[in-house]
Amino acid sequence: MIKPKNNVHRGYLIEKIGHGKRAVFKTIINEKECSTIIESELKTAIDVWIDEGVEP
Question: What is this structure's pTM?
Answer without folding.
Answer: 0.70
